[in-house]
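Minimal example, chain plus S-adenosylmethionine.
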Amino acid sequence: MNVQQAYDTWSGTYDDDHNLTRDLDRMVMVQTLAGRPFPSILELGCGTGKNTGFLAQLGETVTAVDFSPGMLAQAQAKIAAPHVTFQVMDITQPWPTPAGAFELITCNLILEHIESLDFVMQQVHRALKPGGLLFISELHPFRQYLGGQARFTQDEQTTFIPSFVHHISDFMQAARQHGLSLQNLKEWWHDDDEGKPPRLISFLFQK
Ligand SMILES: C[S@@+](CC[C@H](N)C(=O)[O-])C[C@H]1O[C@@H](n2cnc3c(N)ncnc32)[C@H](O)[C@@H]1O
């Protein structure tokens, strides 16, 4: 099953599954971005819209994109606001979004499925306004080293979704190569993660 097919299959149960990574990511978003308004936001890999509603409170316009029709359908059923637009888009292909259009681009739990950070950072640089921000929240590579990866279980069968390890230095180098400078890096644990390596890592880069 490829990544797109896997998320189409998972879409109906994604919101209700026991998933500490999904829940922590939501908290990370709120803790990092609450109270910061942005005229124009691009959300990459919006999934079922878990973070889209929150971004809709911050942005005058929000463009939420994903390549899984199943995930997008869940998001669209949840969020009907005139300033939020949903779009089918594969972020590994040249982006149809206009250049220099966004003050904030967000990326939550999607980059583990992307082989080349380089291409994504290039497209981010093109899409951001000067001074614009890129926020990334991803499964921490320390977890990946221990075998962590996106997965779901339906009918007692577990599907492991194809994923790639990106070391912390990979994020830093790809961003720097494309004119994005690090503003903040944080590591995050869920309350149930005591004694374990960090579950998530977040970066805030600026163009
Ligand atoms: C784990 S879900 C995260 C969804 C949402 N950001 C969240 O935090 O709940 C990963 C999402 O990335 C999307 N995705 C993966 N690869 C993609 C690609 N190449 N282009 C666009 N979306 C992609 C999947 O379809 C899925 O909706």
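The chain has a mean pLDDT of 96. The chain has seven helices and nine strands.
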